[in-house]
Amino acid sequence: MSELPQQILVVDCDKAALSLVAAQVARLGLACIAVDSSEAALAVVEDDEPALAVIAVELPGLNGLGLMQALQEMFVSLPVILTSSKHVDPIGRAAGLMLGADDYLVKPLDPAEVAARMRRSLRRSDRSVDEGPSADPTNHTDDLSRREREILLLLAEGKSEPEIAAALVLSRKTVATHIQNMLRKLGVHSRTQAVAAAYREGLVGMAPK
How crowded is residue 5: how many other Cβ atoms within 10 Å of its Cβ? Predict the structure, then answer.
């Protein structure tokens, strides 16, 4: 039986979720570093690589996706499980995975599922193959119009074309045209890649310019 790594980083500003994940880490017999912000997480890990990070997408300041990317720049092989109570739609989950997450859990969290997913990520953490393409890193988000940014933010919230059309008082055809123009400007081929670009460039959660 292989040795289990020694510590898991858990980052969540939701105290109940933080306690739940920490309890499951303890059940696995591992040490837990539990903090409530990205800044605290970066300060506590420094050069001491955790075996796994379980990170909430919704964090104050630098969000969970930004933290994940910062940690994976520090520790190239670090597996990350994202958790979220807001981005629960397929596009939002796929964007998180495309940005480098090993797994994605939707809140409210189930203790047994959390433990099972952590075990699986730990077992797979020695893989060296990149799993799937990410959005083109040379995205041109500054080229997007105000309307295209509005639509991109709504896509990131999991809105469908009809919902976006209703919210912005546009026809579905106009929304579809804006989406195609947006994909072209971003240099991506799908809405999922566009949402991933929005997270990468820090557009999600920002007011349109």
Answer: 15
Cα–Cα distances (Å) from 85 to 51, 91, 108, 109, in that order, read 24, 14, 7, 9
- Structure tokens belonging to residue 59: 């964090």
Closest to 139 in 3D by CA, of 198, 80, 93: 198
Query: Chain-wide mean pLDDT for the chain?
Result: 82
Task: Give residues with Cβ within 8 angstroms of 132, minimum separation 6.
Answer: 97, 98
Q: What is the rounded distance in angstroms from the CA atom of residue 29 to the CA atom of residue 15?
A: 21
- Give CA–CA dist 137/41, Å, rounded: 25
Q: Domains of the chain by range and CATH? A: 7-124 (3.40.50.2300), 141-200 (1.10.10.10)
| Nearest by Cα to 14 from 39, 37, 43 | 37
Place of tokens 């040795």: 3
Query: What is the distance between the alpha carbons of residues 152 and 111, in angstroms, rounded to a whole number?
Result: 33
pLDDT band at 96 (very low <50, low <70, confident <90, very high): confident
pTM value is 0.63
Contact 96, 87 (CB under 8 A): yes
